[in-house]
Amino acid sequence: MSSVLFLIPIALFLGALGLGAFLWSLKSGQYDDMEGAGLRILDDDEPEKAPAKADTKI
Amino acid sequence: MTCCAPAIEASAESILAPETNDDILLGASLDLGEGHYQLELALPDIHCAACINTIEKALAQLPMVNTARVNFSTKRVRVDYVPAKGHPSEITSAIHARGYRAFLLDPESDNQTDTTLRDLVRALAVAGFAAANIMLFSVSIWSGAEPVTRDLFHWISALIAVPAVAYAGRPFFTSAWRALRHGALNMDVPISLAVLLALALSLFETYNHGQHAYFDASVTLLFFLLIGRTLDHMMREKARSAVRNLARLAPPHANRRHEDGRHEKIALKEILPGMLLDIAPGDRLPVDAEIVSGNSDVDRSLVNGEPVPEHAGPGSALLAGTTNLSGPLLVRATQPAADSFLARMIGLMEAAEGSKAGYKNIADRAAAIYAPTVHILALGTLLFWGLTTGNWHMAILYAIAVLIITCPCALALAVPIVHIVASGRLFEQNVMMRDGAALERLAQVNRIAFDKTGTLTAGKPRLNGQFFGASTFLARAASLAAISRHPFSTAIHAAAPSSQPVQNAREIPGAGIEATDDKGTWRLGNAGFCNAASLDAPDHTSTVWLSLDGVPKAGFAFTDPIRPEAATTIAALHQLGLQTTLLSGDRADPVAHAAKAIGITDAHPNLTPEQKLKALQAFSDQGEKTVMVGDGINDAPALRAAYTSMAPSSAADIGRNAADFVYTNDNLGAVLFTITIARRAAAMVRQNFGLAILYNCIAIPLAVTGHVTPLVAAIAMSSSSIIVTLNALRLRWGDTPEKAKSPKAANTRISVPA
Q1: Does the distance separating the beta carbons of A39 and B52 come in below 8 Å?
Q2: How far is residue B436's CA from residue B348's CA, in Å, rounded to a whole number?
Q3: Does residue B96 surpass a pLDDT of 50?
Q4: Contact yes or no for B599/B574 (Cβ under 8 A)
Q5: B451 given a catalytic annotation
Q6: Whole-angstrom Cα distance, residue B747 to residue B732?
Q7: Which of B74, B215, B489, B737 could potentially form a cystine with B161 if both were Cys, beta carbons 3.0 to 4.6 Å apart?
């Protein structure tokens, strides 16, 4: 019984931590573009500003 | 061009020049401070990973751009830039140079970010967290805890449940309160009552060391309902933002020319009669006006359904919404913007109450029956047990059990879940639905009224054959036509696409194209321009002539072709038992011809917008429920007045905003598919109600006789919600229309709402 007394707060704290993490991720805009996130993994990452090269029309 | 065909078929006139006015772009940007500005543009054409990449890279290369990020879900790009390092117009030009259209969003309708969804998701997260934790304690209690432990667990559950309900229940409480204040009952009233009473009773029981508490039931109930509500909101928002992105604004400003030749950009509402305005080729007229100088061809198809471009010269009166096709025009406004044709249509729309006013959706109708029934049952239970046993505490327990177990869960989920699934199906087939009520209305319609131009026909002239001269001249005509954007020219060029453009050809607005080579001077244009006025031409078609040194060599005829799928679609609609009607502003002859070709017997030509409106009101007076399908500015009042309405995405903005459904795949099959889905969805809703009622028939006797413990309530509630959800998912199968035989079908994206 005594173990329950501190296990319960721990369990609740961990649950609340997960909830907090979710709310934070929502706030920071990680769910704003779900479809785009799935497509971006198809791109090969290239360094920031690409060197100016001849403009190839796609 | 782009990596693959644009998802939204852009008709020739809808590819506008990009917005290049720096002041306008800067004005639409958000000042982030420190010289940084943020601009948001709609990109209707993006549809794959390469598109994201192309646009972001193109923008990142600009020295003034700090970051650019494409949001694929909303089809927008957000650019953070420093105007001091360049011109904002470079941004739009860079996107256009890659072959994508970029539109400024209407700042007025668009700066309200979707806070509702965010609140709903937060509430959902809180309810989910609370429901899971309380359920853990409840399971321990059900598996037989000691009274002391049970009380402790009840208290901990209470500690979680009370704040969770207070936070997550707000969407329901506010809506229930609103309904009660107006003396109405909606679904949220019994929900709120059940949740709050269950919570209050559980607190009371816990305080008195009672055996049963319903904390888990009240929080789980909220959790399930929030899932439904969030999905419902997401689906609507998705359709709304898609429609919003399509909406190209009416020209937000006009180019005024002062008497002394100065130019100035002015807002629409500042236009006064008598002002001179410059109208560039490709622009739509912002107000009713009269041409002062310049010759051009104008396209009135959106104004009165006349598909054939007409020549307009000095003195011609033009209505707002007319597109200028070939030459620059100087016009004098004859009406202020508020009195122009466009504004009159908006006025008509607002006046058209429409037969959908007063429509109560099925969920509210069910709630109106359900809520009193449940409340009377609960009250009856209370009185029965209280009076027969004298044990009021037990009577209250049983009465609240009735409220919980008849859980509006299944009933409140029954409708939204079906609508969400239906909306997902429609979205996959490129149909956007504005709200669920429209789907319910569409399932009830028994008459369908079509506009002709642009809806049943392509809305663009197509070469119908050569009626004069040797067929070898087609290639010559096409090579002349290559330089012009006039619909006839594009149609001729499309008939012989391999021909090379002629050197030194020039376009004479309102007449045709002229070019000189070693054979002499070629002319392609109207009969007067080619000295062919005396020659016979087929009746009721538009003609274009080719002449060499003033001698007519060839004549071409044009028609506005009927869409290939029109006849089969109409036949299928008849099979569904729908009456069909054609309401067009075009002349009697082409209307009769089109009606005959596709099998509509009831056709009305020469209708003014007011008459279209009257025709629809006449149908509704006869008790008929009509769906209107149309695309023109002149259809907008009718679209608003009809019981429900559909518009293609190529429609004028005003028409698109009036319609309940917008289809973007440019295929009439979408109309048939939407009606089929609507009817199936209506059947599903009825089945789900049936299931919910059946479940209640079993559950209520249990509750009234006092057999419902929290465990039974939890099982019964969850299972009923899951059953209606699974049933709704059956809508996902069957009924897929055959794929359009165009490359567009290749990029039909699968997008299931959540």
Answers
A1: yes
A2: 25
A3: yes
A4: yes
A5: yes
A6: 19
A7: B215
B131-174 confidence digits (pLDDT tens): 999 988 888 888 887 888 888 889 999 999 999 999 999 999 99
Lowest mean pLDDT among B70-79, B342-351, B741-750: B741-750
**CB B675 within 8 Å of CB B626:** no
Q: What is the DSSP letter of B667?
A: -
B287 pLDDT higher than 50: yes
Q: Is-contact B278 B259, C-beta < 8 A?
A: no
Pairwise CA distance, residues B85 & B81, whole Å: 9
Q: Is A43 on the interface with B (CB under 8 A)?
A: yes
Cβ atoms of residues B284 and B40 within 8 Å: no
Tell me how far apart the alpha carbons of residues B120 and B81 are, in angstroms, rounded to a whole number: 33
CB contact under 8 A, B125 and A26: yes
B-chain CB neighbours of A56 within 8 Å are none
Residues of B with CB below 8 A from A32's CB?
71, 73
Residue appearing with tokens 């099979």: B575
**Chain-chain contact of B72 with A57 (C-beta, under 8 angstroms):** no
Bin B5: left if φ > 0, else alpha if -120 < ψ < 50, else beta: beta
Q: How open is the CA angle B353-B629-B420, to the nearest 5 degrees?
A: 85
Is B568 within 8 Å of B587 (Cβ atoms)?
no
Tell how strand B289-293 and strand B329-333 pair up: antiparallel
Q: In 3-state terms, what secondary structure has residue B531?
A: coil
Nearest to B72 among A4, A33, A58 (CB): A33
Give the residue from B155, B56, B42, B170 showing the smallest Cα distance to B105. Answer: B42
To the nearest whole Å, the CA of A19 is away from the closest chain B CA by 7
Distance between CA atoms of B255 and B321, rounded to whole angstroms?
16
The pair of structure tokens assigned to B526 is 């109207």
Pick the catalytic residue from B151, B232, B451, B586. B451
Closest CA to A15 of B133, B204, B503, B347: B133
Q: Are B449 and B581 in contact (CB under 8 A)?
A: yes
Contact residues on chain A for B54, CB-CB shorter than 8 A: 58
CA quadruple A20, A22, A27, A32: dihedral, nearest 10? 180
